[in-house]
Every structure is written in structure tokens, then in C-alpha cells.
Amino acid sequence: MRADAQRNAAKLRTAAAELFRERGLQVSLKEIARRAGVSHGTLYNLFGTREALIDEVVADLAADRLAEAAEQALARDDAWEGFAYYIEKVCELQATDPAVSDVIAGRYPGAERLMALCESSHAAAARIIERAQQAGALRPDFTRGDLLFVFGTNAVLARASADAAPTAWRRGVAFMLDGLRTEAARPLPVGPLTEEQLAQVLGGLTGTP
Q1: Per the database record, which ranges form the HTH tetR-type domain (predicted)?
Q2: For residues 46 and 8, what is the distance between their CA atoms, to the nearest angstrom?
């Protein structure tokens, strides 16, 4: 790659990371090009697709923070405290960085690095859930699908209330956590979502076709 192309690629990666953090992964590619100070055609020549550009910056966007949230949760001696910490931390990341919500939802399946990060995040979450359930602290009927549903609805609330009440999501999370304790459990009116249903619901929440 020529030196000028390398400089333009670096500018585009920086601009993409900034705008993805501000507005999520759906931000216009033309806007990314404008912020980088290059043409729309240059972006396509260097990266080709939105997914390729996402994969260039996704590690910087979310990987370290999601991994740290899981590590800190699993390091807690009390399994319930670890579970609650993970929920609260990821919801906080969603509220402050819209790109995190898109990563968790796997919004762009054509982005291979993003999907790998999404899968690794889901696997860590499953370990956190299992640990809390084995300790008898988390109701046994709570599933990984339920957790993704929690994150999906939190993402919508966090984005809708960002200007008027930026911490409103914390109230909803607190109510939800109290309802997930084993001692608060009551029979549920319907069963868990299937994988297909979950994908459809998350697609609707995030605007994925």
C-alpha cells in the first residue's frame, strides 16, 4: 500500500472508531469519509464494505471492555455479585457507547471479527449465568437468551433517554436484577425464546433486516 493510502486508511479507522462510539455501527459511511477528510470513493477503495471497516476497528471499540467486564465478574467471590456486576457494567457500556450494543447483538454478521467478539462475549456471559445459578442465587429458568433480551431492551432505553435522562437505564436494571434473585422467582407465563425467535427480536430492536 502506498504511503498516501496508508495515511488515508489510518484517518478512516480513526474517524470510524469515533463515530461508531458516538452513534453506533450504523453511522453513514459518507459521514465517516467526511470526518476523515477523504472521498467516499477512497473509503470504498481501501475497505470495500462497512463490515470490513467495522472489523478494522471493532477490537478497539469493544473487545477489551467486554472482556474486562466478564473477567471482573468471574473474579468476584460472590457469584450473585459477579452476575449483577456484569449486567450493570455491560448496560453502562451500552449507555455510554452505542457500538457496544451492536457488537453484543451481532448486528453485522458479515463482519467476521465482530461476530467472533460477539460469540466470545456470549460464551463468557453463559459462564457467569451458570456460576450464579449453581450458587443458588440466580433463578434457574434464566437463560442466555433472556440475558440478550435484557441487553437489547436496555440498548433501546439507553439511546432513547440519553439526552433527557442519561442514567434512567439504571432504574430499570435495578428492578430487573431484584426480579432475577432465586427467592423472587415465580412461575413464568411463557417459555424461553427459541434461537430463531431471539434472532428476530434482536434484529427488530437493533434495526437489523
Answers
A1: 6-65
A2: 8
Closest by Cα among 20, 146, 121, 115 to 68: 121
**How far is residue 104's CA from residue 24's CA, in Å, rounded to a whole number?**
12
CB 148 within 8 A of CB 122: yes
Q: At CA 131, angle to CA 79 and CA 92, rounded to 5?
A: 60
Residues forming beta bridges with residue 138, ordered by sequence position: 181
Q: Which residues of 72-81 are buried (b: 16+ CB within 10 A; e: fewer)?
A: ebbebeebbe
| pLDDT reported for residue 1 | 57
Each residue of 68-124: pLDDT tens digit? 999 999 999 999 999 999 999 999 999 988 888 888 887 788 888 888 888 899 899
pLDDT at 209 over 60: no
